[in-house]
Design goal:
Chain B: Residues 3-221 form the ABC transporter domain. The complex is a heterodimer of chains A (225) and B (223). With 225 residues, chain A is mainly alpha-helical. Helix content of chain A is 76%, strand content 0%. Chain A is built from eight helices and no strands. Chain B has one domain: Rossmann fold, CATH 3.40.50. In chain B, helix 4 (132-145) packs parallel to helix 5. The chains are: A mainly alpha (225), B alpha/beta (223). Chains A and B meet through helix 1 and helix 4 of A and helix 2 of B.
Chain lengths: 225, 223
């Protein structure tokens, strides 16, 4: 199953990275968000670390919606979804493959959003940057597990972009709050209060949606039209 | 026995598409699936492929994937190809996804598969620029690369030129000769009857003929 998942992930990354399909729009949307929020500050005013982290995660969340819509839409063009379903591997390989590709693409996007947030929102990198980075990685696992599950659910539906946003954002609230709270450490000089609880919440979120993905994916990604 | 359908029925919502279909596919045979438009032929093929679940009855597969090939190959209306990838990249992806042995997904093996479909000189061109016939030949290369023991074909000749049709017929015959069981929905039944061993005809949601191709008279069963 892992080898099939890696085959799917590498094919998706080849499609999205080498041809720019989908990823460019996701990057532009995220950068636009960061830039627009930077205009809300008065001249000389510096945004707090939590505010900057909130904008970073907002950009990441919108970017994620576009990434997973694109990742699942490429299987619909010539009915390739049926080909994936006919492969002699558990259908969860598709979920895992899309998750791996989504995780890589989201990290690439965040690698652009982070310096953009530092520059446009007037932040400085704190000595605790590694805490912020660890939070980003931990939160991204849960975010992509959920995105790969719900991205499959919204395929074949009219207005799938809005459907994914509607079902995804409410479920992302806990991990986004934790990401904002702890991720602010990357821009602040001290570790926020209750960091262990927030990280525990993110770990629980990851475990819940990794499990949900494995169990529920075969029910949402099938050959019925 | 490669495939057995027992009293299969399928509903889409409240609409009955097919009912009470019992049927068996043996190795080394070509079964033509005949019937008027909307009779449920494609639905039946999807049930055979496992892409759709029967509302009643059962679908049993007798073959499991082994070192020599996949259990099942499906060629539908859609080509399954990724237009942004080259023909070679498309084949390489499917070979890897199906976990083919290294010698069967080597560059030589993939190019040989494309050569067989007369696509080798287009191997490194984007598949999105292919004509319908070329795309369908690439799709056929994908299926045959897997050496399936059961081959399900849903009107594979639609939109193909004479040359592509000749290649398709050659490959169907070759698959039968190596022992594959083939179920084939054809849009020109009268023409393809001579290439089939058996016929399963569907009309009015049920099987109206199941037997040797030689005894099948299309007009007699109103298909």
């Amino acid at each position: 199953m892992l080898s099939a998942a890696l085959a799917i992930a590498s094919k998706d990354l080849r499609l999205l990275l080498s041809r720019g399909t989908g990823l460019v729009q996701a990057l532009l949307l995220g950068l636009l968000l960061i830039f627009v929020f930077s205009l809300s500050q008065r001249v000389g005013e510096v945004m707090g670390p939590q505010g900057a982290a909130a904008i970073f995660w907002l950009a990441s969340a919108f970017c994620q919606v576009l990434i997973f819509n694109t990742l699942f839409a490429i299987e619909e063009a010539n009915g390739a979804r049926f080909g994936l379903l006919l492969a002699p591997v558990p259908v969860q390989a598709v979920w895992l493959g899309k998750g791996i590709a989504g995780f890589t693409l989201l990290l690439c996007a965040q690698a652009v959003f982070l310096p953009a947030a530092i520059v446009f929102l007037g932040q400085t990198v704190s000595p605790l940057w590694h805490v912020g980075l660890a939070t980003v990685l931990l939160a991204d696992v849960g975010i992509v597990a959920l995105g790969a599950l719900l991205g499959a659910l919204s395929q074949g539906q009219a207005a799938r972009e809005s459907l994914l946003s509607i079902v995804l954002f409410p479920l992302l609230v806990p991990v986004l709050l934790a990401g904002i709270r702890v991720g602010a450490a990357a821009f602040a000089d001290d570790i926020p209060e209750g960091v262990e609880s927030w990280l525990g919440l993110v770990a629980a979120f990851d475990a819940l949606f990794l499990g949900a993905g494995i169990v529920l994916f075969p029910f949402v990604y099938g050959g019925e039209e | 026995m490669l495939l057995r359908l027992t009293r299969v029925a399928k509903f889409y919502g409240n609409r009955l598409v097919i009912k009470d279909v019992s049927f068996e596919v043996s190795a080394g045979t070509v079964t033509l699936l005949a019937g008027p438009n909307g009779a449920g032929k494609s639905t039946l093929l999807k049930l055979m492929a496992g892409l759709s679940r029967p509302s009643a009855g059962s679908v049993e597969h007798g073959a499991a994937p082994d070192a020599s090939g996949d259990a099942l190959g499906y060629l539908g209306h859609q080509t399954f190809i990724y237009p942004e990838l080259t023909a070679f990249e498309n084949l390489a992806f499917w070979a890897r996804l199906h976990g083919l042995a290294p010698e069967r997904c080597s560059e030589e093996a993939l190019l040989a598969a494309l050569e067989r479909m007369e696509l080798k000189r287009f191997a490194f061109e984007r598949a999105g620029g292919f004509s319908r016939g070329m795309a369908q030949r690439l799709n056929l290369a994908r299926v045959l690369l897997l050496s399936p023991s059961l081959l399900l074909l849903d009107e594979p000749g639609t939109g193909l030129d004479t040359r592509s049709m000749a290649i398709l017929h050659r490959e169907i015959a070759a698959a039968r000769d190596r022992g594959a069981g083939i179920v084939w929905i054809s849009h020109s039944v009268a023409e393809d009857l001579a290439r089939a061993d058996r016929v399963l005809a569907i009309a009015d949601k049920r099987v109206v003929y199941s037997g040797p191709a030689a005894d099948y008279v299309p007009e007699a069963v109103a298909c």
